[in-house]
Write a structure and sequence with these properties.
This is DUF1071 domain-containing protein. The chain is α+β, with helices and mostly antiparallel strands. It has one domain. About 30% of the residues lie in helices and about 30% in strands. The chain is built from 3 helices and 5 strands. The strands form 2 sheets. The protein has a 3-stranded antiparallel β-sheet with strand order 3-4-5, with helices on one face. Strands 1-2 form a two-stranded antiparallel ribbon. The longest helix has 16 residues. The chain is globular and about 50 Å long.
Length: about 100
Amino acid sequence: MTKKSVFETLSNIEINPDNIEKKGKFNYISWAAAWQDVSQKYPDATFAKRLSEVNGFVEVDVTIEGKTLTEQFPILNYSNKPVQNPNAFDINTAFQRGLVKCLAY
């Protein structure tokens, strides 16, 4: 039997219905629930966050089984518009959204 790829493994996770939230017309799972699912399958998985050298962006690295993916994510407001002078909450929200986006790859 061949080993499943990380993508195959993660894309076949059964999402606990209690972890599905609704915002507007979209369903989503929180970054914490997403990371919990990843860390259950890959206990050695890690992530790192930093401000990007490109103004208005954050960067997130996710490493699973020795392979690192990096995602840049813009700092956006509640309407998904760029934030001119982001505060700590705006930056933290962008980090968490970037983490989940990186996990989607």
